[in-house]
Amino acid sequence: MVGSLIAGVSTPVPLQTGGEITGNIENFGAAVAVGLAAFGAGYAERGIGAASVGALAEKEDLFVRVLILTVLPETLVILSLVVVFLVGQG
């Protein structure tokens, strides 16, 4: 099973319920990429969120800048999903 994943060959894997799962290395790589991008975005937002709340407490005029900086890491996840869909079509 692992050898077929490394070779990139889609092979059916029997389940206990009688069904089959087909998978290949591209799907696994895409899942890892999106998962790591989401983890990285969450890690970045942790620090940005704490700093932005402190900045907003002192100056409410910074709301737009804080909002942009808070949303910016989420673009990583969106871009990784776009890459997944582009690789899936190829």
TrEMBL record:
<dbReference type="InterPro" id="IPR035921">
    <property type="entry name" value="F/V-ATP_Csub_sf"/>
</dbReference>
<feature type="domain" description="V-ATPase proteolipid subunit C-like">
    <location>
        <begin position="28"/>
        <end position="86"/>
    </location>
</feature>
<keyword id="KW-0812">Transmembrane</keyword>
<keyword id="KW-0472">Membrane</keyword>
<comment type="similarity">
    <text>Belongs to the V-ATPase proteolipid subunit family.</text>
</comment>
<keyword id="KW-0813">Transport</keyword>
<dbReference type="GO" id="GO:0016020">
    <property type="term" value="C:membrane"/>
</dbReference>
<keyword id="KW-1133">Transmembrane helix</keyword>
<feature type="transmembrane region" description="Helical">
    <location>
        <begin position="62"/>
        <end position="87"/>
    </location>
</feature>
<keyword id="KW-0406">Ion transport</keyword>
<protein>
    <recommendedName>
        <fullName>V-ATPase proteolipid subunit C-like domain-containing protein</fullName>
    </recommendedName>
</protein>
<dbReference type="GO" id="GO:0006811">
    <property type="term" value="P:monoatomic ion transport"/>
</dbReference>
<dbReference type="InterPro" id="IPR000245">
    <property type="entry name" value="ATPase_proteolipid_csu"/>
</dbReference>
<dbReference type="InterPro" id="IPR002379">
    <property type="entry name" value="ATPase_proteolipid_c-like_dom"/>
</dbReference>
<dbReference type="Pfam" id="PF00137">
    <property type="entry name" value="ATP-synt_C"/>
</dbReference>
